Amino acid sequence: MSHVDWLSRLLQMITVTGRPEVRCAYGAPWRVAWAQCAAAEIPYHVVLKGRAIIEDHGAGTTMELEAGDIVLLPHGSAHVLHDGSGQTPGPTREREGASGLIYSENDANGEALDMLCGRFFIGPPHDRLVRNYLPINLVVRAMDEVPGSSPTRSRLAHFVELMRDERSCEDVGAYAMLNALSCALFTLVLREASKSDRAPTGLLALAGHPRLAPAISAMLTEPARPWTLPDLAALCSMSRATFMRHFQETLGRSAIDFLTDVRMGLAANELKKPAISTEAVAESVGYQSVSSFRRLFAERIGMTPGHWRRLARASQ
Question: Which candidate, 86, 84, 104, places its Cα nearest to that of 95?
């Protein structure tokens, strides 16, 4: 199965919405600080022009970003972006555009930065899947001039250009366009990152692993099937022991852990439907024993199926 298959299946289960919030137009020196985000929020930054240094307090890393770079922080960790000069920045002023986007500017005349900042929102309880299976930070360089670069990278570059155009546009629907582009950007970034040789440990590295990809695609495509470790190992043309070792090393969790999380994520979606019973939901995700399903759901989601159903109905 292809990379598109696993990612499409995952995003059918997880509801992701995007919201651009601030357009930063600064001259150096400048500095922007983001506090720790809520569990269901993923901040993102798109450098449209210039360069920026990002200090991720959660990962303890410092990276330089250039024009065309996109950074996501799936764990929502506190972070700071600055120009790298070490100079104290002056005051900034903010104004709200007709589209609802906030424009933040300063009067410094150093190296110019144009950056779009926003957040993705993951519907609960799927935010825990993001925290468990995506890295603390994720950087994709859309504008790299690499011979033979992937079509996805070209699409990312085009998306950055579209976001730049819509960011500058005050036409009717500009903000809605930025929202739509943000959601598509999330998918493209994950797809490109999974193809990278530098994919971090976790779901992206697993999906990009040529021998393990069949297992993740199978579990996402047919989660209710009674998969066993020998079944999954056979799909990957590995022995059971080799499959278990490679899966654990690549994802950081076992295949059964991942399958259980997928099943519970799908069950949470099904429980929102008033006409389907808990017993039917359990069977639909592969459990003949309702008591086993209730126990696993409570362990993974943090509440009983009945409690989750009531909360979901109340929020609707």
Answer: 104
